[in-house]
Amino acid sequence: MLDSNARILALETSGQTGSVAIGTADGVIAAEQLPVDVRHASELMPAVQRLIAQPGWAPDSITDVFISIGPGSFTGLRIAVSVARTLAWSIGARIVAVPTMDALARNALLADPPPAHVAMIVDAKRAQVYTACYRIEPSAPVDASSSSASWRCVEVIGACLAEPREFLSRCPHPVSVLGEGIPRHRAAIEAAGAQILPESLWAGRAQAVLAAGLEKARAGAFTPARELVPMYIRRPEMEERWEARQAAARQANS
To answer: Based on C-alpha coordinates, what's the Rg of the chain?
Structure first.
C-alpha cells in the first residue's frame, strides 16, 4: 500500500516531449517539462534535482518512483527504467510501472467536456501507431456534498500496434484522438471520422503518470527493480535490422 508520507517522483519519457513531476499521496506538487528528444539520463536528472529542491526534499527522501513504461520511444523508456532501477537500488524507492496508454488517456479528461471515447495515436513508423481505446465515464462525486462529478478512463481496447484507420474503425464511436503521432497520421484519422482533440492534450504528462500511479500504488501494484522492463510491443528497430542482415548473409552463403 501507499504510505501517507510518500514522496513520489513521476517520469514521462515515452514520447518526443518528456516531463517529470513530484507529489504525495494527495497528488501533484510540481512538474517540469523536459527539452524535446531527451536522450540521456544525465539530461533528465538535473530536472529531477531542480524539482525536488522546490519543496526542500532531500534527494534520498524519494520513497516511490512512478514511470511511464510504454509502449513508446525505445530510448526514452530505457532512460526511465534506468533511473527507476538506480533509485530503487540506491535509496530503496519502490517502483510503479504505469502503462503509457493509461496515462495518455487521462489527457482527455482535461477536454471540456471530455469525449465519450478516446484513442491514442503514437507513431510507431511503418504506417503504424501504438494505440489503445478508452471509454470516459463519470465516476462518483468527490464527496457527498459536491454536485460535480469526476471522470475516469475505462479501457475498451488494450495497447497494441495497428494501422490507425483500421484501428479507429474498431473503436466505439464517436471517438476522439490525441497523441504526438497525429501530424504524421492525420489523413488516416480524418478518413476514419475521428475527432482530433486540441494539440495541448497530445503529449504525455508526468502529472498523469503520477495520478495513474497513485491508483496502482494504493492497490499494492509495485514492481521489483529486477523485474522492471519496458513495454515495447514491437521489438527495437535496430534488432530487427540486425536479424535481417544476418538472414541475408546466411542466404548469400548458402
So the answer is: 19
**All domains in the chain, ordered by first residue:** 8-100+204-241 (3.30.420.40), 102-200 (3.30.420.40)
> Which amino acid appears at position 41 of this protein?
A
Q: Which amino acid is at 88?
A: A
C-alpha triplet 117, 121, 125: angle, nearest 5°: 155
Q: Tell me: the pLDDT tens digits for 108-150?
A: 999 999 999 999 999 998 899 999 999 999 986 545 444 446 8
Q: Determine contact, residues 202/40, Cβ cutoff 8 Å.
A: no
SS (H, E, C) 196-229: ECCHHHCCCCHHHHHHHHHHHHHCCCCCCHHHCC
- The C-alpha angle 38, 43, 48, rounded to 5 degrees, equals 110
